[in-house]
Amino acid sequence: MRFRHLHSIVNQLFLFCFIGMTLPVLVMGFLSYNKSSAIVEEQVSKVASLTITQVSDKLNLFFKKLDDSSMMVLNSKLIQEVLEQKSDVTPYELNEMVKNSKELLTSIMINSTEILDIYIFDVKRNNSVFSGDSLMSVPDQWDSDWYEAILKANGNTVWFGISQTSYLKKTETGFPVFGLGRAIRSWETGEIIGVMFYEIMADLLIDELDRVQFGDTGYIYVTNDENRYFYHPDPAEYGQASRIELTEKMRDSDKKKTLVIPEKLDNGWHVVGVVPLKELTADSASIRNFTLWIALGAIVLAIGMGVFGIRIIGNPLVNLSRLMKKGEAGDLTVRSGHIGRNEIGQLGRSFNKMIGQIALLIERISKEESEKKKAEIRALRYQINPHFLYNTLNSIRWMAKLNRTNDVDNAVTTLVQLLEGSLERGGVFGTIGGELELLEKYMIIQEYRYENKIELYTDCPEELLDVPIPRMLLQPIVENAIFHGIAPKEEKGTIAIQVRQLGEDLHIRIQDDGVGMDKELISQLLISSKERTTKGMTSIGLRHVDQTVKLYYGSAYGVKVSSAEGEGTSVLITFSRRKEDKYVQSAAR
Fold first, then answer.
1. Closest Cα to residue 118, out of 139, 96, 94, 136?
2. DSSP strand E in 109-255: where?
3. Of 191, 196, 309, 467, which one is least surrounded by beta carbons within 10 A?
4. Residues 341, 345, 347, 350, CA torsion sign
5. By three-state DSSP, how is residue 460 classified?
6. Which residues pair with 261 in a beta bridge?
7. Which of these ranges, 275-284, 285-294, 473-482, has the smallest mean pLDDT?
8. Cβ-based neighbour number of residue 390 at 10 Å
């Protein structure tokens, strides 16, 4: 029941057009969007990886330059001699060596402008701290963390993170700095004789890294070998532990798809790019929107095509189906208005032709049925007329034997008038008034036979006397009342005829005070001769009247009989005041 509407060809056509046009567009749009998104994502990943590689190359070059400059200090014979401080060196010679060492450090700083200061500490704490800028007093550094870290590195380069405070002077510098440190070993003994520390300005490095961005929120950062931030766009993160595992390649953060691209530097650190794919693949959104617009257009076009298909194909078929149901119900006046050149038009023309042929066939059958019924009624009348003549002539014969010549003359004259009335020269229909006059003449003959033992009373309004009625409709009933109702009781009897109008219907009641009938006999009166178990002319007359009324006025009208033994019989005839032929309806049924 829930899907009964899908059985309609209109809904099927609409769904066919709608699904047939929108589904391919939606599927192709979805696939193309996914494919384009994957391509854009792949290209973005490649570009981001290339950018990270370029940044790592610059950082490697930057750190290598600083590391190479530190190697110049390690390989300096002058620095070695100052730190070893042999006993045979005079104070003058020592001052000259220190002066020359400072000039060496100054030249290194000149070649590398990012170097703020270079300090060399004697592990024996004999000599002053050397600075490439000036010989100055600095806080005690031998117990500092960075000093211990350099000693533990055993000669390897140690890098220190960005800070706003000088590692050596312990004062605010006003700009970010970071450090590089190495232990200086004796060429002869291999022992650590000094510690070298570079304090380097980080402005240039930070500016270079700040310029690298991926979208609006993407960024890069640099972590040391402990996965702590050496550089981060947020200075507050300097030195903090990174929350991103470097093993990640793709991760979801706050329901945002983020690409993490790490690149290892030569010093063991990592430069990491954090790429928000949603921002960098924003171009694919235009493809998605374009696909959605195409899908929306396809839906609108599908709806339009569906409505057009319904109007051109569905509605004519539905209309034809309704016309066929009306034709099936008996309305043969229906005709299809869709008679175009296509198959539906041909179907409409065929339907119209079929309905027309059916109407003609039914009309022909109706006429044949009507003629058949007329023939049956005539046959009944031919059965009634000999019976009527037999009874009348038998009465005249007995009057002739009794030499009642005047009565015979009057009876024959009346009989001639009755026969003329039954010949239907004026047509099948007469009037109620004419029928009552024929009954009065018929009663004249019966009065001769029964010596005025039977009285006839008629009650009909004058306005109903001219109402048309089939001829000889009342005589068979009156005759049955005389011969089968009143005559057997051998007493004086009466027959009353009453005519009344109820709306458009007329009721004629013929009532006698004869011997009456039992229920079994009443049930046999109006059925066919094949089904009847009793014999006699009583049922023939009543069947004649009943079938005549039904023929001309329809099955809703006819004869009803009510009776009881010893109480008389009442026959009610009902018909319409308007004379109508029911041949076609009778045949159609």
1. 136
2. 115-122, 130-131, 158-165, 172-185, 192-201, 219-223, 229-231, 250-253
3. 191
4. negative
5. coil
6. 273
7. 275-284
8. 11
